[in-house]
Write a structure and sequence with these properties.
The chain has a domain at 29-207 and 466-552: 3-Layer(bba) Sandwich (FAD/NAD(P)-binding domain), CATH 3.50.50.60. Helices cover 27% and strands 17% of the residues. It is built from 14 helices and 24 strands. Helix 3 packs across helix 5, helix 3 (86-98) packs across helix 13 (505-525) and helix 13 crosses helix 14 (534-543). The longest helix is centred in the middle third of the chain and has 24 residues, at 349-372.
């Protein structure tokens, strides 16, 4: 009798476990927590869910995991390292361990790379962390996380944004992907750069810049005449096809629209680009080639910039290991495709694909133009042609980054909105779930004509935060009247300019982990995410070595 009872209990347990993984329909799946996204935040959320004993599934629109962290942004935007804890710090610890191995230095000696960083060392020996890395090294670590924690990942799956979200009593019951797969969960985490699940669940959001007077800010709205980085025209450059002749028409990528008054809001978003991984190693270099539909006239503005005496082309060729570089936008006319992404956040999948392709063609054309056009200064062109795409990166995508830099898309509007006032420590932040420290940072948003008839960029902001700041739990949860079981660790509830600081990859990892922790508590306590007991959440986060206030920062970090 006892043996029969034990067998019966084992059978019931087995059936329970199996039914939690899938229904009888092979296209239906269940888990405690459904994570939508392939970003760094998605992976940390899923890992933390498993660590807390929850079943979890990642639905990733991307083929490759890690988002920008593995997609070319290897020269990490750090801010203050001492407030990066939890799984985010573990990631950079694993990067450190990777580069301690001799076999990781294929194209360069470790001592030749040294300890290059951006105002701080790339390698913190005492903390055993490293903050600068190659794209493939980052992706390998994200895949290790998935394998170690036995996380099921469905890659290249996009939710049906029109009809794929089933809700009942203010909760998401299931999401269906375009391929027909249906995922049932108790809690859902939108860890995409675009906020697609959030939007499909009818959660309110904002796109573009709010007016300064909406949240009593200084740096949010239109900012003509403000130049805080080097990404502007430092001399007067004529914007017309025939200089001095407005009737000849504008050069490409210059807007003829009327510019809003300073401080006013608009629906425009900061520019996107690809963070390219280039190398000078001849054995690992792929030469720049002419892209389809190449048109050198699109880059006439750059010639005029060079003629003005500008020579800053290589200033954001930031060194990463193995004789490679993470190349970011720099200067008035660079890799940022200014003004060509306004419709991206709300666009259909097909339109987004077109926008991404347009960005790729623009950027590849720019590379080919600098490499080959006879009007490029000879010394610049000679040095530029020592560079090429890294042959051992993004090998299944023609050595081109597989993730466009979506610097900003949708931002949730919840009961609590983070603004520059919280970032600048003018206002206290309730219920911290992590910290940020980067400056208020926005890339250019439009290329305009000034009253004097010259061309200028607008929207580039770089205002340093006086100290690390807290990020509220309330900023990652929707209004309870809109959705009760959704957390949003990337498209958080904040203003445009506040997002300029929050939008850093280490912060996304921190918020992903915290979102999963809150989701697990909500499941255990059978409450909506808005009713999660913060004291309980705080205790768990601190136990996970998350940094919630300056009082519990990582003391052994020097920066």
């Amino acid at each position: 009798m006892k043996n029969l009872l034990l067998k019966g209990l084992l059978f019931i347990t087995l059936i329970s476990q199996l039914s939690f993984k899938s229904n009888t329909d092979p296209q239906e799946f269940k888990a405690d927590i459904i994570v939508y996204g392939g970003t760094s935040a998605a992976v940390t959320a899923a890992v933390q869910a498993k660590k807390l004993g929850k079943t979890v599934v990642i639905i990733s629109p991307a083929k490759h995991l890690g988002g920008l962290t593995s997609g070319g942004l290897g020269f990490t935007d750090i801010g203050n390292k001492s407030v990066i804890g939890g799984l985010a710090r573990d990631f950079y610890h694993r990067i450190f361990l990777h580069y301690q191995m001799d076999r990781s230095w294929l194209w360069q000696k470790k001592e030749d790379y040294g300890n290059k960083g951006q105002g701080a060392p790339a390698i913190d020996g005492n903390a055993r962390t490293m903050w600068i890395f190659e794209p493939h090294a980052a992706e390998d670590i994200f895949n290790e996380y998935v394998k170690e924690n036995n996380i099921t990942v469905f890659r290249e799956e996009w939710i049906d944004r029109e009809k794929g979200i089933k809700m009942k009593d203010g909760k998401i019951i299931s999401v269906r992907t375009i391929s027909g797969k249906i995922f049932y969960g108790k809690m859902f985490i939108d860890a995409t750069y675009e906020g697609d699940l959030m939007a499909a669940a009818k959660v309110k959001y904002h796109i573009g810049r709010e007016a300064n007077n909406q949240y009593n800010e200084q740096w949010n709205g239109v900012q003509t005449g403000v130049f805080q980085h080097g990404h502007y025209f430092k001399t007067k450059i004529d914007p017309y096809k025939i200089p001095g002749n407005p009737s000849s028409g504008l050069l490409p990528f210059i807007s003829s629209e009327k510019v809003e008054a300073n401080g006013n809001g608009d629906n425009k978003v900061q520019a996107y680009c690809f963070r390219m991984c280039l190398t000078t190693n001849p054995n690992n270099k792929v030469a720049f080639t002419k892209p389809a539909n190449y048109d050198p006239s699109r880059y006439e503005l750059l010639i005029r910039v060079f003629k003005s005496g500008w020579r800053e082309l290589f200033q954001k060729f930031d060194p990463i290991p193995n004789q490679k570089t993470d190349v970011n936008n720099h200067g008035p006319f660079s890799t940022d495709y200014i003004g060509m992404n306004y419709d991206y956040p709300d666009a259909s999948y097909q339109r987004r694909k077109e926008i991404i392709k347009e960005h790729e063609i623009y950027q590849k054309g720019l590379l080919y133009f600098i490499a080959t056009d006879p009007r490029i200064p000879a010394d610049v062109q000679k040095e530029f042609n020592t560079w090429g795409l890294a042959k051992d990166e993004f090998k299944d995508n023609g050595n081109w980054p597989n993730q466009i830099y979506v610097r900003e898309a949708r931002r949730m509007i919840s009961d609590y909105v983070m603004t520059e006032n919280e970032i600048m420590s003018r206002k206290a932040v309730p219920e911290s779930i992590g910290m940020g420290s980067y400056s208020l940072d926005s890339h250019n948003i439009q290329r305009i004509i000034l009253p004097d008839g010259s061309v200028q960029n607008e929207g580039d902001i770089g205002v340093g935060a006086p100290q690390p700041y807290e990020i509220s739990y309330r900023a990652i949860i929707p209004k309870e009247s809109e959705c009760k079981n959704l957390l949003v660790p990337i498209c958080v509830s904040c203003s445009h300019i506040a997002f300029g600081s929050i939008r850093m990859e280490p912060v996304f990892m921190i918020l992903g982990e915290s979102a999963a922790t809150a989701a697990a508590i909500a499941i255990d306590d059978k409450v909506n995410v808005q009713k999660v007991n913060y004291t309980k959440l705080k205790i768990k986060l601190l136990d996970q070595n998350q940094v919630l206030t300056l009082k519990n920062k990582i003391l052994y970090s020097k920066n």
